[in-house]
Amino acid sequence: MSFAQLYIGAGNGFSSLTTRNHSPYSWMFCKAITGVVLAISGYVVLTQLWYAAYPEEIAATLPEDVNWGARQPESLKDDGIRPFTITTSPAVIEHLKFRLNHTKFPHAPLKGVSFEYGFNIDYLKKVRSYWLNSYDWSARLKFLNSLPHFKTIVSGLDIHFIHAKPAASAKNLKVIPILLIHGWPGSIREFYELIPQLITPRKNVDYVFEVVAHPAGFGYSEAAAYSGLATAQIGVIFKKLMNKLGYEKFYVSGGNWGFKIGRDMAIAYPENVLGFHSTMCMDMHLAPVPVVWTAVHVWIGSFIPGFAVAKEDEHRLYPLRDYANWLWTETGYLHLQATKPDTIGTALLDSPIGLAAYLMDKFSSLTNPANRKLPDGGLTKKFTLDALLDNVMIYWTTDSILTAVRLYSEYLSNDYIKLKFDAAPVKVPTACARFPHELVYSPDFRVNRKFKNLVRISKYNDGGLYAAFEEPKIVANDIWTSIPLFLKARQNASSGSS
């Protein structure tokens, strides 16, 4: 029986009922049934529109011959893969110390306030003192250079990357290339505890990883001279980099911007990306129908537990008022950097203590919202001040904060949106490691809609936006566990197509 027949039958039945009984409650009941039927019908129609709103492919093939650098192609000398050592001139460090010694602090923080208004001024003074008197940049340089660094020209840019290979003891094992991609306000520093766990062989495992890490525009990589370098275009650069290193096929893992870059690579190059692992799986399709459909789904879930999210995930989305307040509180930087990146970039470029406060604030609130109530912002629960200042120093000594925040503007530009990467499905085998304090929570039903070949969703009890930095052991284990599932999915696909 169709909804129309059900509706007509119900209407006739209740009409005769009210004719006999003349009861106003019968009419009210009839209207209630009518409302339910119409709501269900609307939900079904919206669901069909939801599926129709997703294209199967991106709108255009990405060109690979774009020169993003300031130099003309004929003047570029491709001298292959060059070893690179992180160095800093003494003058840069002396200038930094001068600026720190002459920091102009604002008034004292409000009484009884920790990090609720942003980075606490009293704790910021402690950070400055540690930076000036205890932090040893010479020792930290040795640590940063403990992994092998390289540079090479790709798409007109001098790209810096880490290329860590397994130990000699792994000579009889299969070596699996994996590209690690970080985001903002992170840097290569996020991966220093993770990489050793990937290149060290594991007992009873017949493979080991060879790791390549770094995005363009951050740290020691050259920034684009032209607008338009969004996540998809960075993905092109990384694909070309991996090819240049001799890897035609490889795996990708990333969170934050690393998720979006890796996702775009998986969509654009499904034959090259063997598997995609992420600590921030989301469906970013913001067309009207998916947004309305999700809003209705989530709203119904606020009345019917389990309708929109699994029981163990309800606290991540409900109460909706709390979730909306969390997003409102913690995403101001996104709007600023998407609309005025050069303004905020210029301000941060000229103040080391301002840069430290701005960057480290994110490692407080976006690892756990409860950190806002702590005097030190919870920063020392997961990180050391050395590790956090390493990250700040990478931005300060390379003057890369402005070019890094431009990525927000490029990603939200019409040129990028028109490519429809946010709408197109990811068809390569995908594994999602989900952490409770991700900035934006995408319900599993949307994740499953985006990733057509989802081999694994693992959920953990702690961790936030910077999972590889916060929980390197968990992330390493998740990557190791995902590889056999990727291989099996590829084998099943090959068997099915033959």
Automatic annotation (TrEMBL):
It is found in: Microsome membrane. Keywords: Aromatic hydrocarbons catabolism, Hydrolase. It catalyses: 1-(4-methoxyphenyl)-N-methyl-N-[(3-methyloxetan-3-yl)methyl]methanamine + H2O = 2-{[(4-methoxybenzyl)(methyl)amino]methyl}-2-methylpropane-1,3-diol. InterPro entries: AB_hydrolase_fold, Epox_hydrolase-like, Epoxide_hydro_N, Epoxide_hydrolase. Its main location: membrane. GO terms for biological process: epoxide metabolic process. One of its GO terms (molecular function) is cis-stilbene-oxide hydrolase activity. It is a single-pass membrane protein. Residues 81-191 form the Epoxide hydrolase N-terminal domain. Gene3D superfamilies: alpha/beta hydrolase (3.40.50.1820). Its EC number is 3.3.2.9. It is an enzyme of class 3 (hydrolase). It comes from the Eukaryota. Belongs to the peptidase S33 family. This is microsomal epoxide hydrolase.
